[in-house]
Amino acid sequence: MNPKFAATLIIAFAAFFSTAVGYHYGLFSRVELLAYDFQAKQIRINHPTSDQVKVILVDEASLKSMSSIAGRWPWPRAIWSDLLEFMQIGGARAVLFDVLFLERQDKLNDTALVNATHDFGNAYHSLMILKEAEDQQSNQKSTLGRALPDDLVSQFALRPHLGSLSQDSFNNDYALPIQGLASASKGIAVVEFSPDEDGSYRRTKPLREYQKNYFPVLGLAPFLDKQTQITFQSQSVQIGDKRIPLDESGNSLINMYDMNKIETYSMSGIFASLQKIRQGNVENLIVDPSVFKDSIVFIGASAIGTADLKSTPMHHGAPGVMLHAFFANNYLLDDFMRPPNKKITYLSIFLGVFLTAWSVAFSTHLRFRILMPLLLVGLYLSYAFLSFKSNSQVEIAPFLIATIATAFLNFGYLSFTEGAEKRRVAQLFTQYVSKEVLDEVLNHYKDYLKSSSGKKVEISVLFSDIRGFTTMSETAPPEQIVEMLNVHFKVMADIILKHNGTIDKYIGDAIMAFWGAPVETADHAERAVLAGQEMLEGLKEVNRILKERGFQHEIRVGIGINSGVATIGNIGSEQKKNYTIVGDTVNLAARLESITKEYKTPLLFSEYTHERIKRKIDCRRVGNVTVKGREQAVDIYTVAPSS
Q1: Which residue among 290, 320, 498, 582 is buried most deeply as judged by most CB within 10 Å?
Q2: Residue 424, pLDDT score
Q3: Which residues pair with 558 in a beta bridge?
Q4: How high does pLDDT run on average in the chain?
Q5: CA distance 261 to 256
């Protein structure tokens, strides 16, 4: 057998089996989640929503404006009875609370909410169905596995006509609304979601099971009752006349929407309008109750203090209630996403591997060796995007990884056998660190090789992000966006490298850099802040160049800096690793960058950075903030303007 033919077959079979095994054990799941999110952002952003679904949010304005009446969050329950009064005036079809009322507050407030729920007649309240671990240390008798109250089961539990829901584990605990609230409700629904392994929320079990009793999630509740016919099938559940596709774990992918397309109202506007109505003034209301006529209204929270913000494919900090609103839209519009077919995924891996191996190994011209794998990838991505647009997910990551790995292996083999010249890594590395840092690393190679396995270092981290980039990318041609990013990154990278920083990565339109590693420096905080200042000045040069090239938008950025201890090392999979930093220090820097727009200050750094530079750089305190992911508030600063 021809050695080249044999080697090509060996490479193809090795790539196929390794990718198939990796896929079977979920090694590419995180990459696939990123691919799913990208498709959702591109394809679902302009998808229409039902005008029947509306959302009322407890936002920051609500907490502030109602603090004198309702006090601190959580509010007295009589407040919610007022809301139901407003919904009754407006003639809402259903009101669904993504707010848990699990513990008694006081008799007056609890009774007010129960009575208002009963009088309205179309309110849905929430419960939780959980799987809890047994407490081995407790001497108390376990309450896990206790039966649901008979009246709750008889009034609300659903029974499937046929089959059962696939369960990874059995639920053994629950949390119910306060006494009397469930029986006064039109329905009871489950509100908790489980995130995917990357922390984002994309799916839910439409029906939750507890001891063979089923309860809908909040987004489905207004469409179901005990008379609704429910049939479980191998890959779907039939609810009435709607078929909801399910994956092998019984989950349904929630088709996302741009939440700006959901008609949303602030609680503060609702209550201000109710007060005017009670005073007999029905003119010039902030919110006219008639807008809720025949609507399905979800009640939730978006204020940071309510702790109900969730990361979704299209929004990093969406109110959790939006997931229920999205799922309700899915049902109303029959807009359900079909999960991927594993047989198609395995077939795509096989075709990608063998077609790539053959084209690279036996094409006579280099351009065909390069273009054929790219053509395969392009065709497959087009197929996946068209399928996604038709509400059918096709997995992308296994095919891409298999195809790219096969191409690289074949090119590697050809390079070795045909004597291709070796490329110098140092030349590439200079794109990420300054020449001085690179020289230091190369001069002490063994020390840095040992540290690459991971160690704690004190560093300063900088995140920079272009403001309004999404709007730019939607209005400007793609080639102009690429040109803009290249100009911006060139100027910013030069400044970072000038201050001996290390460019960790480019994340879309953002830059992540750090100081203090791989070469330890005592003045890393000062270097980071000085670099941040110069980056803001460098925007003048960026915008000058872009204006000369006919770019219409002026670039502005937000920069966040934090200092502290982080873990550094070679992090990643066997296929790809990156010398990078992780830890709370990094997360806080990213959070600070995200709030620069809110504080209208382009450069923000934490009190930890300020402590290290306050004797060298004049600073101004901006405020005190509790950022997402941290319980403890942190002081934030910026550089004081020169007098």
Answers
A1: 320
A2: 38
A3: 465
A4: 86
A5: 11
Q: What is the mean pLDDT of residues 494-516?
A: 90
Over 90: is that where the pLDDT of 292 sits?
A: yes
Classify 54 as helix, strand or coil: strand
Q: What is the mean pLDDT of residues 285-313?
A: 91
The secondary structure of residue 145, as a DSSP letter, is T
Q: Is residue 434 very low, low, confident or very high in pLDDT (cuts 50, 70, 90)?
A: low
Count of CB atoms within 10 A of residue 586's CB? 21
Distance CA 333, CA 330 (A): 5
Q: How many residues does the chain have?
A: 643
Angstrom distance (rounded) from CA 268 to CA 248: 43
Contact 190, 128 (CB under 8 A): yes
Q: How far apart are CA 433 and CA 442, in angstroms?
A: 12
Task: Measure CA 486 to chain center.
Answer: 26
Q: Quick check: 426 and 442 in contact, CB under 8 A? A: yes
**pLDDT at residue 38 is higher than 60:** yes
**Distance (Å) of CA 324 to CA 39, 54, 100, 192, 238:** 21, 11, 14, 10, 19
Region 267-294: mean pLDDT is 92
Bridge partners of residue 638, in order along the sequence: 620
Q: What is the mean pLDDT of residues 451-468?
A: 83
Question: pLDDT by residue (tens digit) across 71-85?
Answer: 888 899 999 999 999
Across 119-123, 372-376, 393-397, 532-536, least confident range: 372-376
3-state SS, residue 570: strand
Amino acid (1-letter code) at residue 169: S
Please, which residues have CB within 8 angstroms of residue 402's CB and are 6 or more apart in sequence?
15, 16, 19, 349, 352, 353
Return the percent helix, strand and coil in the chain, to nearest 5.
Answer: 45, 20, 35
Taking a C-beta distance cutoff of 8 angstroms, is the pair 92, 293 a contact?
yes
| Site of tokens 């045909």 | 418
Q: Judge whether 459 and 563 are in contact, CB under 8 Å.
A: yes
Looking at the DSSP assignment, which residues form a beta bridge with residue 455? 568
Beta strands in 102-241 (DSSP E): 123-130, 173-175, 187-190, 203-204, 207-210, 213-216, 230-232, 236-239
Reported in sequence order, the residue ranges of 7-112 that DSSP labels E, i.e. its strands, are 53-58, 94-97
> DSSP code of 222?
G
Q: What is residue 220's predicted lDDT score, i.e. its pLDDT?
A: 95
Nearest CA to 620 out of 634, 612, 610 is that of 610
CB 204 within 8 A of CB 251: yes
| Rounded mean pLDDT, 181-186 | 94
Per-residue model confidence (pLDDT) at position 620: 94
